[in-house]
Amino acid sequence: MNLLSGVSDFFGLDIGTTAIRLVQLSGAGPAKSLVKYAYIPIDANLSQSDSKVDQQKLAQSISELITQARMNTKNVTVGIPSQRVFTTVVDIDTVPKNELAKTIHYQADSLIPTPLNESKLDWALIGPSPKDKTKSEIILSSIPNNFVEQRLDILEGIGLNVIAFEPNSLALTRSIVPSDNTQPLMVLDVSSRNTDLVITMNGMPRLTRSIPTGGQSIVRTAAQNLNIDETQAEQFVFKFGLNKDKLEGQVYHAIIGAIDLLTVEIDKSIKFFQARYVDIKLDHMIVTGSAAILPGFPLYLANKFGMNVEIGNAWRNVAYNNDRQNELAAVSNQFSVAVGLAERTE
Fold first, then answer.
1. Running DSSP on this structure, what letter comes out for residue 179?
2. Domain ranges in the chain?
3. 319 with 342: CB under 8 angstroms?
4. Does residue 45 carry a pLDDT above 90?
5. Is there a shared CATH topology between the 11-81+145-177+313-342 domain and the 211-309 domain?
6. Which CATH architecture has domain 84-143?
7. 3-class DSSP state of 326
8. Under 8 Å CB-to-CB from 168, ≥6 apart: which residues?
C-alpha cells in the first residue's frame, strides 16, 4: 500500500515488540536532515496482541509518543513486522511488461500461504532468472488484509494519515545498506523476539527471513543455565556476551546453545542463496539490533562464516549536527527500521 507520491512531510513509525519508535527527516537528495526522533517503551505483548483492550493500549502509547515528540505532521509511513509478511523470490515465464501483472496475479495463489482475496500483494521485477534465462526473476510479498486493516484502524483512530505500509525488512536495508552497494550483502537484525535476515544485491532483497530466535530467548537461556532471574541474566548477557575470558566463560557457555540455534538458520540462508546464485560470493554481513551490542557476537559471526562483519549505522545517510554524534550512535542499533521508513521516497 503506497500513497506517498506528492507527500514530502511525513515520519516513519516502527511499532516494535518492546518499544515504538519514530523518525522524521527533511530535505531531498541522498542525505536528508534529521528533524526529530523519539521512542516509548511498551509491554512486550501489546504489539502482537489482537485483543481490543491491547489494541487500545497500543493506540494510546502511539498517541503519547507523538504528543511527547511534538509532531507537526499527521502523515506517516508504517513498518510491518517481518513475521506478518510472506516474501519469496520466484521465476516466472518472461512476458511483455503489460502482461506481467496479470501473469503474477494468476500464479500468486499457488505461491503465497494466505488466500489471494484475503491478502495484499506486492511485487517487483528483478531481472532475468539466474537459473533459467528464458524466465524472469520476481520478488513477491503478501500481507494478510486483516492485519493491515487492524493497524490502519488504530492509526486513523488517533488522527494519523497512513501514506504507506512497508515490510520492516525493506526499511531496514534502506537505512543500513550503502545506496551504491552492488555486491551481495546480508543484514542481520536481532530484536527482542526474532531475527530479521535479509540478503540484498543491487539494491533488491533476494532472500528475507524472520527467524524465531531473538535477544529474549538468549537471555532466557542464560537465566535457566545460570540459575538466576532474567533481569540479572540480561545484565550478564549484554556485559559479558561471548567473551570466554570473562567470568571463566560461564556466560559464554550459558548462551552458546541459543546462539547456535540462530547460526544454524543463518547457515541455511547462506546455502540457499549460494545454491540459487552459484557464481556470486556472499562475504559481507552488517549486524544491528542486539547483534550489534552483544559482546563478541560480531567477531563470532565473522569467524563462523568467514565473512567481513560490520556494525550497522542507521544514520549513515542522515545529516545532523556533529555534537549529536555520540547520542545518535548510542541508539543506532534500535532505529534502523524507523530511519528506513523515514527515508522512503516512493
1. T
2. 11-81+145-177+313-342, 84-143, 211-309
3. no
4. no
5. yes
6. 2-Layer Sandwich (3.30)
7. helix
8. 14, 79, 80, 81, 82, 85, 196, 337
Q: Residue 7's pLDDT is what?
A: 59
- What is the rounded average pLDDT of the residues 7-19? 90
The CATH classification of domain 211-309, taken from the options 3.40.640.10, 3.30.1160.10, 2.60.40.3140, 3.30.420.40: 3.30.420.40
Length of the chain measured in residues: 346
- Are 193 and 216 contacting, i.e. CB atoms less than 8 angstroms apart? yes
Q: Which residues, at least 6 apart from 277, have a Cβ–Cβ distance to it below 8 Å?
A: 130, 184, 201, 206
Task: Quote the cell numbers at residue 150.
Answer: 487492524
pLDDT, tens only, 178-198:
888 889 999 999 999 899 999
Amino acid at 198: V
| Beta strands at 135-144 and 75-80: parallel, antiparallel or unpaired | unpaired
Cβ partners under 8 Å of residue 204, min gap 6: 124, 126, 139
Q: Do 14 and 38 form a contact (C-beta atoms < 8 A)? A: no
Domain range 11-81+145-177+313-342, CATH architecture? 2-Layer Sandwich (3.30)
Contact 38, 68 (CB under 8 A): yes
